[in-house]
Design a protein that fits this description.
The chain is mostly helical. Helix content is about 85%, strand content about 0%.
């Protein structure tokens, strides 16, 4: 999924014009969804967009489910700028867990849902509803702002080659940084494995 997202970020100026469904299949970021929503049929937009948005969510839910509080500390170390946001979500989740999954079905909320031991079936249902709702809101935005979106697409078409050079260069720099961090990322996963031993919940226990 990471490689797919990098591919989309590198080639988006070409993909958005020639292969819009491939673009959101590789990466369903909001900006890509907005750019393609008026170019593709709605059935494909919802099917591919929902599949790509939902794909990482079970993994984050499972990390939270099996590693408990250690998973939260792991995520906070990986994304220190989001630590305050995550602390707020943790505090709210006990009371507003279901609405949060519907309104913000992102990686952080999915992780916290797993830590909170939300029923997997309930999580799946709420996550699907929230994801389809997100796609619907972007469809509405695409309809309301169809003129400006067409202008942006025209700009991209005119300057496609320079934009490709810039986007490929930025992704190359980012990928190089990730390769240099690779050992640290593996170490982080090992830390999660060891630190989670004390917090890990027996998966045979019943969910809350």
């Amino acid at each position: 999924m990471v490689i797919a997202a990098y591919t989309a970020d590198a080639l988006w100026p070409n993909l958005v014009e020639n292969h819009p469904l491939w673009l959101i299949g590789l990466s369903a970021k909001n900006r890509y969804l907005v750019l393609v929503v008026n170019q593709v049929d709605l059935a494909s937009y919802y099917l591919i967009g929902a599949a790509r948005l939902l794909l990482p969510d079970p993994f984050f839910f499972a990390i939270g489910w099996f590693y408990g509080p250690a998973a939260l500390r792991w995520m906070e170390r990986r994304t220190p700028t989001m630590s305050r946001y995550m602390t707020t979500l943790e505090r709210w989740f006990g009371r507003w867990g279901a609405p949060l999954v519907v309104l913000f079905p992102n990686n952080y909320v999915c992780l916290i849902a797993g830590v909170a031991r939300m029923s997997p079936w309930l999580f799946a249902g709420l996550n699907i509803v929230g994801t389809v709702g997100r796609l619907f809101m972007i469809q509405i935005l695409g309809d309301v702002f169809s003129g400006p979106i067409s202008s942006v697409l025209g700009f991209v078409s005119t300057w496609r080659v320079p934009l490709l050079v810039v986007s490929i260069g930025l992704v190359a720099l980012t990928s190089l940084g990730e390769l240099r961090r690779g050992k640290r990322e593996i170490t982080e996963l090992e830390i999660l494995e060891h630190s989670g031993e004390a917090d890990r919940i027996d998966p045979t226990e019943s969910s809350v």
